[in-house]
Amino acid sequence: MLKAESLFSETARPRRGAWSSFACGTVGLVLMATAVGCGQSGPPRATVYPVQGKVELNGKPTAGAVVILHPKEGSTAPAARAEVKSDGSFAAGTYGATDGAAEGDYVVTVEWFKPVLKNDDYVMGPNLVPKKYSAPQTSQIEVHVAAQTNELPTIKLKR
Predict the structure, then answer these.
(1) How far is the C-alpha of 70 from the C-alpha of 15, rounded, in Å?
(2) Is residue 117 scored above 70 in pLDDT?
(3) Among 66, 100, 63, which Cα is nearest to 80's?
């Protein structure tokens, strides 16, 4: 049986150099694991190109509307999204807010839920854009994104 004093004696303690090496090695492994874990994972990203345009409903801008570019059937391009500004303009983004869209053909949908005041709080109102423009199956708006900067023709929605 060991006596308490022998546990703390000079001979029972690990050598200072051994602890330092162990601590440095552990810290090094943790840093390496953290660095590896912070890398990108998943499928590779598609190259995207700037896409800009305008949306009007009966000739007026649709500030706050959401535009989505859905890749046409058979395409592997990811969808892109944009929010319409007060002047009706938008810039689409796939991975970031306005980084662009991958080259390819898309069906465009538009939804515009204007906030309404209800019980002293703003809530999402009804979609102000006709329903046919809000689903890729019924929208007839199609665009092509080329491997360059893309200025799309104005999307003119009618009631």
Answers:
(1) 65
(2) yes
(3) 100
